[in-house]
Write a structure and sequence with these properties.
The complex is a heterodimer of chains A (276) and B (340). With 276 residues, chain A is mostly helical. Chain A has a single domain, classed as MetI-like (MetI-like fold). In chain A, 75% of the residues lie in helices and 0% in strands. Chain A has 12 helices and no strands. In chain A, helix 8 crosses helix 9, helix 9 packs antiparallel against helix 11 and helix 10 runs antiparallel to helix 11. Chain A is elongated and about 75 Å long. Chain A starts with a helix and ends with a helix. Chain B folds into 2 domains: 88 residues; 230 residues, MetI-like fold (Orthogonal Bundle). In chain B, 77% of the residues lie in helices and 1% in strands. Chain B contains 13 helices and 2 strands. Chain B is globular and about 80 Å long. Classes of the chains: A mainly alpha (276), B mainly alpha (340). Chains A and B meet through helix 4, helix 5, helix 9, helix 10 and helix 11 of A and helix 1, helix 6, helix 7, helix 11 and helix 12 of B. Chain B: It comes from Tardiphaga robiniae.
Chain lengths: 276, 340
């Protein structure tokens, strides 16, 4: 409760929250605001912003840019959240195992994590999506695969810190099974930094998704911000609005999520937050 | 006296040799693992691996596929196939692009210089300017420089790198007409070697700045707080008490120590920077490996994709080694430590 109160008093965190809520609202209401298919031609091509019925203009095939942005918000948010959940599952599992068991297990797990941090993640994501096909589920999987290492490192550090604490040792001495100790004793105490890093991971997942669809690896059935920019980049000399507005949408959404994440960080970890 | 210094020198040489050996082991391990990754990817792709290698051309030529199956031993058990593949990678045989009718190695070699130029420029631009700007902001710490840095880095951190590139094109090429919007060198104009270099440099500005921008902001911010941290430590007070000149304290004591965390972070972000180069090359039609990936994607040319992935991972390791070396040179505490 007090956490909620102090977040409500966090100025930039609240700004971020309001912008994020606006984006969520736009995503949820897209089917009512723009009932037509965003791929549908609704006007003349190359209409500048504030043309009749098209306040953000139309693209080179006469599609409504505003409709594309509203429908793209759904895809960005869905992919951002679900791929972060995927990387949370992978990262927390690996980090918890390494931190709880230590020794050889830790050594192996950390070598794997290091390796994934060395290889260029975005190129691996490109390869994965190109190989298994540009479907939304595959894109989520690919982003999850390349973004778990920071979460694993964080979880491991937290688990190592808590592993030797008395309440954990008491639970072990009582004969509780490792899984119980990990899930019911340690994880609840390690959860707040994981939540903070996870919320920031949503932002970077949205950036990776936009770059993938910019490269032409988005789901071909779903309108997305990155695709709109990628499609419009060749006509940027004639029509700036087709690439400027979707980019602003990405910028605002990612910025809002980062602000919320920093706000959460300040309220959940008050002691360490100011050391940035 | 001399005996001691010779001994210390011998220890130093030994430590450097050990560090080099550690790097070589790491390098080989990463290359082998990535090659294995590639192998798994080819077999995880839907359809016949032979077809994947051939580049999934719509008209699958049965004769070519049969020849590929024989050549790559695709009927043999997986471990043997994998061993064969690793053997080819080690001998720098990265396969053959049936789409482009050329070996992958030759395609990559042709594109490598442009990518190296772009990533190295962006990396050093971000690192050097970040350290200098952060140093200035830290030494003259004031409220406003902190606020400006925080806002700029927050904004850049949320900006997709390809969009930043496009916006810079819009401003500096389309509106102001100061810089070329795309390409590597002006085509169809006879030039001397020097003119050509200047021309390439001119084309390099926008892509390198777009790629470096976000890292520049991060490093500046990091450097600033690092300088502030170091300034309050005891050895700086000692240096001041000794009566050292302000300039010498800043350069020898503060700068050296404050740089360490930035170099570490830069090494960790090398992978992200190289990944960003792929997108930036696509935006600016920069004829490097990223552009090669983009073309290979359109044609689903897997041998090229896998080869580029391998080479780009090697570039990341090279950048890691570079930052590691810089760290060892500037770290004032220990001359050379054994490879960890």
């Amino acid at each position: 409760m007090s956490t909620l109160k102090s977040f409500l008093r966090h100025p930039t965190g609240m700004i971020g929250l309001f912008v994020l809520l606006a984006v969520v609202l736009l995503a949820v209401s897209a089917p009512w605001l723009f009932p037509d298919d965003p791929w549908e031609m609704v006007g003349a091509p190359f209409q500048p912003p504030f043309s009749e019925g098209l306040w953000l203009g139309s693209d080179m095939l006469g599609r409504d840019v505003a409709a594309g942005i509203a429908h793209g918000a759904r895809i960005s948010l869905i992919i951002g959240v679900i791929s972060t959940l995927t990387s949370l599952v992978i990262g927390v599992t690996i980090g918890a195992t390494a931190g709880y068991f230590g020794g050889k297990v830790d050594e192996v797990m950390m070598r794997i994590t290091e390796l994934f941090q060395t290889i260029p993640g975005f190129i691996l994501a490109i390869l994965l999506v190109a190989t298994i096909g540009p479907k939304i589920s595959n894109i989520i999987f690919a982003i999850g695969i390349v973004s778990w290492p920071p979460l694993a490192r964080l979880t491991r550090a937290e688990f190592m810190r808590l592993r030797g604490r008395e309440f954990v040792q008491a639970a072990v001495c009582q004969g509780q099974r490792p899984l119980t100790v990990v899930l019911r004793r340690i994880l609840p105490n390690a959860i707040s930094p994981i939540i903070v890093t996870g919320s920031l991971a949503v932002a970077s997942a949205i950036l990776i998704e936009s770059a993938l669809s910019f490269m032409g690896l988005g789901d071909p059935n779903l309108m997305s911000w990155g695709f709109m920019i990628g499609a419009a980049r060749t006509v940027i000399r004639q029509a700036w609005w087709m690439s400027v507005f979707p980019g602003l949408a990405i910028l605002l959404t990612v910025l809002a999520i980062n602000l919320v994440g920093e706000g959460l960080n300040d309220t959940l970890n008050p002691r360490i937050s100011r050391k940035r | 006296m001399t005996a001691v210094s010779v001994d210390a020198k011998g220890g130093r040489v030994f430590a450097i040799a050990l560090a080099l050996a550690g790097w070589v082991v790491k390098f080989i391990a990463v290359v082998l693992v990535i090659a294995t990754f590639n192998f798994i990817l080819v077999h995880a792709a839907p359809g016949d691996p032979a077809q994947v290698i051939a580049g999934q051309s719509g008209a699958s030529d049965e004769k070519l596929l049969a020849q590929l199956r024989a050549e790559y031993g695709l009927d043999k058990p997986y471990p043997i196939q994998l061993a064969n593949y690793l053997k080819r990678v080690v001998t720098l045989d990265l396969g053959y692009s049936y789409r482009q009718q050329r070996t992958v190695a030759s395609l990559i070699l042709e594109r490598l210089p442009a990518t190296l130029l772009l990533t190295a420029t962006a990396f050093s631009l971000a690192l050097l300017s970040g350290i200098i700007l952060g140093m200035l902001a830290g030494v003259r710490a004031g409220k406003w420089s902190d606020t400006v840095l925080t806002v700029v880095s927050l904004l850049l951190y949320a900006t997709p790198v390809f969009w930043l590139g496009l916006m810079l094109v819009l401003l500096f090429s389309v509106q102001l007409d100061w810089l070329p919007a795309f390409g590597y060198v002006t085509i169809g104009v006879p030039m001397t070697a020097l003119q050509r270099m200047v021309d390439i440099g001119w084309h390099l500005i926008l892509p390198a700045v777009s790629l470096a921008a976000v890292y520049l902001a991060i490093y500046t911010r990091l450097m600033r707080s690092s300088v502030l941290d170091v300034t309050h430590q005891d050895f700086i007070k000692t240096a001041k008490a000794k009566g050292l000149k302000q300039g010498r304290i800043i350069i020898r004591h503060i700068l050296r120590n404050a740089m360490l965390p930035i170099v570490t972070v830069a090494g960790m972000q090398a992978g992200a920077l190289v990944g960003g180069a792929v997108v930036i090359e696509t935006v600016f039609a920069w004829p490097g490996l990223g552009r090669l990936i983009y073309d290979a994607l359109l044609q689903r040319d897997y041998p090229v994709l896998l080869g580029v992935f391998l080479v780009m991972s090697v570039i990341v390791i090279a950048l890691n080694l570079l930052t590691d070396a810089i760290y060892r040179v500037i770290d004032p505490r220990v001359s050379v430590r054994a490879a960890s």
